[in-house]
UniProtKB/TrEMBL annotation, chain A:
Keywords: ATP-binding, Nucleotide-binding, Transport. PROSITE patterns: ABC_TRANSPORTER_2. Belongs to the ABC transporter superfamily. One of its GO terms (biological process) is transmembrane transport. GO terms for molecular function: ATP binding; ATP hydrolysis activity. InterPro entries: AAA+_ATPase (IPR003593), ABC_transp_ATP-bind (IPR050319), ABC_transporter-like_ATP-bd (IPR003439), P-loop_NTPase (IPR027417). This is ABC transporter ATP-binding protein. Residues 2-229 form the ABC transporter domain. SUPFAM superfamilies: P-loop containing nucleoside triphosphate hydrolases. CDD domains: ABC_NikE_OppD_transporters. PANTHER family: D,D-DIPEPTIDE TRANSPORT ATP-BINDING PROTEIN DDPF-RELATED, TRANSPORT ATP-BINDING PROTEIN.
Automatic annotation (TrEMBL), chain B:
GO terms for biological process: transmembrane transport. Keywords: Cell membrane, Membrane, Transmembrane, Transmembrane helix, Transport. It comes from Streptomyces mashuensis. The lineage of its organism: Bacteria, Bacillati, Actinomycetota, Actinomycetes, Kitasatosporales. This is ABC transporter permease. It is a multi-pass membrane protein. The chain crosses the membrane at residues 20-39, 80-106, 191-212, 251-271. Belongs to the binding-protein-dependent transport system permease family.
């Protein structure tokens, strides 16, 4: 499903955050990526979702090498991957209601007509009430907002889900609920998951296979250098 | 519902200042509209027998050096100033938002090129550049508006670009891209609604400034033709009589340059506090 080959990426020229990282996620496989804070996991997740252009290396989705990034990536490749970010506050447009947040991918891809039914279905599976759907992000809790962000990621029925510290901000019961939703989706569709976290207990319970950051990278990374602050 | 809680943190005097600004502005606008309408007398009518009369009941603002009624001329001038101020501020905001929007949304080389152009623009003193623009065109309201608009879009472009640069890196924009949104969709759905309040505030803040520029250009004899009633031309032609002790031809037009600009500035300051409640309150001129 996803193959990352020798990825080197960073935000400033000459200062890679991660170097020569290789990782494979098979069809329908749930892979956990375990690494310390600040090692470059999130950057790798953004590269895998075609949201950040690596300085070197290849990203293959279904054996197809990715050439464009962000808007330049073909829409089919972009929407095959669903992303859930760490901070729900930052990941939802503060001006939209939760209903609009979840419906946005369907509207953006010209499937407006499907939106009401799909949003209702997703709200039911993620445990969002009708009242919550009419609220804006500042009127709901982090956990409720992250449920909406997960629903948004599932809206286009992606074949791979990338969860970047999806549950780091949440309490145990919400974590269990969100992982449960994802597992149900996997069981139903056979989608693959790349779960990035620093929590070995969670990843070991959730994923088929857990890889450690140090095992997939060669060379120095951000965590090896003295912290700039 | 909780959706008004964050708005209730108004600082103590804000409602008062808002009300005062709105009342004064409404009164001034009403005067500019109603006075010429209620007194359909030609404001150009010369009456040399009644020149430089001090304020009386017949002429509440007095008369000027050729006997024209100053109340009537001030109201006419106010019309021109308010219209020019608002239209010029709007035009400058549209230009600035477009330029800043292109630079911020496209980034890369477009951004660098456009922003160097903006630097070039802001390196020229803007009153000087405005004078060049009106000097190239015929005297009239249109050229004055063009001159103010062409010299005042720079700050708005900077504000809009800076806001966009910060917005572009938000995870919700990433999520939209991942959800298949086109550039246009991201711009219209997520970026523009976030930038518009800032651009709108910049436009309101620019209105007083634009009024002053219109007056300054007219005062310098470059704006409206000398016979047309404009607050700037009136202050200019009153200079001679001020030295002779006749204060009213300068005071009343001058007052009506200052009062509406202060009223707009008070409203803009209140709006800015609402957008950014933690910012320092300061006069917005």
């Amino acid at each position: 499903m996803l193959e990352l080959r020798d990825i080197t990426a960073g935000y400033e020229p000459g200062r890679p955050v991660l170097r020569d990282v290789s990782l494979t996620v098979g069809d329908g496989e749930a892979v956990g990526l375990l690494g310390p804070s600040g090692c470059g996991k999130s950057t790798l997740a953004r590269v895998a979702a075609l949201l950040h252009r690596p300085t070197a290396g290849t990203v293959l989705l279904d054996g197809e090498p990715a050439h464009g990034w962000r808007h330049r990536a073909p829409r089919g490749q972009r929407t095959a991957v669903g992303v859930v970010f760490q901070q729900p506050r930052q990941s939802a447009d503060p001006r939209l209601t939760l209903h609009d947040v979840i419906a946005e991918p369907l509207r953006a891809t010209g499937r407006r007509a499907e939106a009401p039914a799909r949003v209702a279905g997703l709200a039911a599976t993620t445990g969002l009430t009708d009242d919550l759907l009419t609220r804006r992000p500042h009127q709901v809790s982090d956990g409720q907002l992250q449920r909406a962000c997960l629903a948004r990621a599932l809206a286009l029925r992606p074949r791979l889900l990338i969860c970047d510290e999806m549950t780091a901000m949440l309490d145990a019961s919400t974590t269990a609920a969100l992982v449960g939703v994802l597992e149900a989706y996997r069981a139903e569709t056979g989608a693959a998951v790349l779960a990035v976290s620093h929590d070995p207990v969670l990843l070991n319970r959730w994923c088929d296979r857990v890889v450690r950051w140090d095992d997939i990278t060669r060379g120095t990374t951000a965590s090896d250098r003295p912290h700039p602050l | 519902m909780a959706d008004t809680t964050w708005r209730t943190r108004a600082s103590g005097t804000r409602p008062v200042r808002t009300a005062a600004g709105a009342t004064v502005l409404a009164a001034v606008v009403l005067a500019a509209v109603l006075v010429p309408w209620l007194a359909p007398v030609d404001d150009q009518a010369v009456d040399l027998g009644a020149k430089l009369l001090p304020p009386t009941w017949a002429h509440p603002f007095g008369t000027d050096e050729v006997g024209r009624d100053l109340l009537l001329r001030t109201a006419h001038g106010l019309r021109v100033s308010l219209l020019a101020g608002v239209v010029a501020a709007l035009a400058a905001t549209v230009v600035g938002t477009t330029v800043g929007g292109l630079a911020g949304a496209l980034g890369g080389w477009t951004d660098r090129l456009v922003m160097r152009g903006v630097d070039l623009f802001s390196s020229v003193p803007h009153l000087l550049f405005g004078i060049v623009v009106v000097a190239l065109l015929r005297p009239g309201t249109g050229p004055v508006i063009a001159s103010v608009a062409l010299t005042h879009w720079v700050s708005t472009a900077r504000i809009v670009r800076a806001e966009l640069l910060s917005l572009r890196t938000r995870p919700y924009v990433d999520a939209a891209i991942s959800g298949g949104a086109t550039r246009l969709r991201v711009a219209v759905r997520h970026l523009l609604p976030a930038v518009l309040p800032q651009a709108g505030l910049a436009a309101v803040l620019m209105v007083p400034h634009a009024i002053w520029h219109e007056s300054a250009l007219s005062f310098l004899g470059l704006g409206l033709p000398a016979h047309a009633a404009s607050l700037g031309t009136m202050v200019n032609s009153a200079r001679g009589s001020l030295l002779a002790g006749q204060w009213w031809p300068t005071l009343f037009p001058g007052l009506f340059i200052i009062v509406p600009t202060l009223a707009v500035a008070a409203l803009a300051a209140a709006w800015r506090e609402r957008l950014d409640p933690r910012g320092r309150p300061e006069p917005a001129l």
